[in-house]
Design brief:
about 350 residues, Spore Coat Polysaccharide Biosynthesis Protein SpsA, Chain A, alpha/beta, 2 domains
């Protein structure tokens, strides 16, 4: 068998039949081969055109974890146009603990992480970037924190080696996130994070909301903390971080605030907005009615139309709140007992 065959997805097989080379086809569970210890830790590394850094990154992860934990390294090629996949294939041939997933095209980091999470077998997931700015020597610190009882551990780059403009934007962004979410982390956007498997099972990852998983986790009652990590200057390639990404982050923050505060009580948001708009519209029309009784002409006043529009908008927001409550109720009727947020139980 060639290295390419070993790492590429195999043809569909029955659930009880392992596929070639330890890979699996869609819908088939990954099972450890006889005599092979299943991993405790899954290191998930999404990357786009990072071929130059992967071999060194894999070597440093091995140095950090070898002999300390059973682990696997899961590289996710997010539609690279260089020879990233060939490098992953070679690394797998050299060490079967290195796994690979290749997406059909560049879908973005959220999809790459989802692919890695779905295929990871460890009880502890650790995500890190492929550009060598995260230091694999910090991996044991993440593992130790989770084994102490934490559910999510976020890296804190105490001394960041980034351009000044990026540092300023990052400080503004993280300060805003701390105030908006109440989660006191220095760097919510850091890609170096550790999770207990249960956290990822409980929180969907989509769009660009992956960077806010700690905020979602804290809202769901999981224990979140941070650990200081070393940060290195980028060695290969160039950063894709810019103002556009910051703007997307702020839009995502609005989504997080809505989803965490109102996903189970949408009427509290839509009802309040509807009440304010409808109330202002009603007062406006009441004022015009008083003027009309006093003999003033009101038919050509813009306030007449504005008041009517505000009342209609208020009714629409109330309607959205009722629909949201109905959907929330229907969804919670289907909640399985395994999905309840129970940390411990005595029976």
């Amino acid at each position: 068998m060639t290295a390419q065959e070993a790492i590429a997805p195999a043809p569909p097989a029955p659930p009880s039949t392992p596929t070639a080379g330890g890979a699996r086809s869609r819908g088939v569970s990954l099972r450890a081969a006889p005599g092979v210890e299943p991993p405790e830790v899954s290191v998930i590394v999404p990357g786009l055109n990072e071929a130059d850094s992967l071999a060194e990154l894999a070597r440093r992860i091995h140095l950090s974890l070898d002999g300390k934990r059973a682990y696997e390294i899961l590289f996710v090629d997010d539609g690279s146009t260089d020879h990233t996949w060939e490098v992953i294939t070679r690394l797998h041939a050299e060490d079967a603990r290195v796994k690979g997933v290749k997406l059909r095209r560049n879908f973005g980091k959220a999809m790459a992480l989802s692919a890695g999470f779905q295929r990871a077998r460890g009880e502890i997931f650790i995500t890190m970037d492929a550009d060598l700015q995260d230091d694999p020597a910090d991996l044991p610190a993440f593992i130790a924190k989770i084994e102490e009882g934490l559910d999510v551990v976020v890296g804190w780059k105490v001394e960041r080696l980034d351009p000044q403009n990026r540092l300023v934007l990052s400080r503004i962004f993280n300060g805003t996130v701390r105030r908006a979410t109440g989660v006191k982390l220095h760097d919510m956007n850091c890609g170096f994070k550790g999770y207990r498997r249960e956290v990822i099972r409980s929180i969907p990852v989509y769009g660009d909301l992956f960077r806010f998983i700690p905020a979602f986790a804290a809202w769901e009652g999981f224990r979140v903390a941070e650990v200081p990590v070393k940060h290195h200057a980028r060695k290969y390639g160039k950063s894709r971080y810019g103002l556009e990404r910051i703007l997307r982050g702020f839009f995502d923050l609005l989504s997080v605030m809505f989803l965490t505060r109102f996903q189970r009580k949408p009427m509290h948001l839509f009802g309040l907005v509807g009440l304010v708009l409808g109330g202002v519209g009603f007062l406006t029309e009441l004022y015009l009615t008083v003027l009309w009784f006093r003999g003033h002409k009101i038919g050509d006043r813009p306030l007449l139309l504005l008041g009517a529009l505000l009342i209609l908008a208020g009714i629409q927001f109330f309607s959205m709140g009722f629909i949201g409550e109905f959907l929330t109720y229907q969804n919670h009727k289907k909640v399985d007992a395994e999905d309840l947020p129970i940390r411990e139980e005595i029976t």
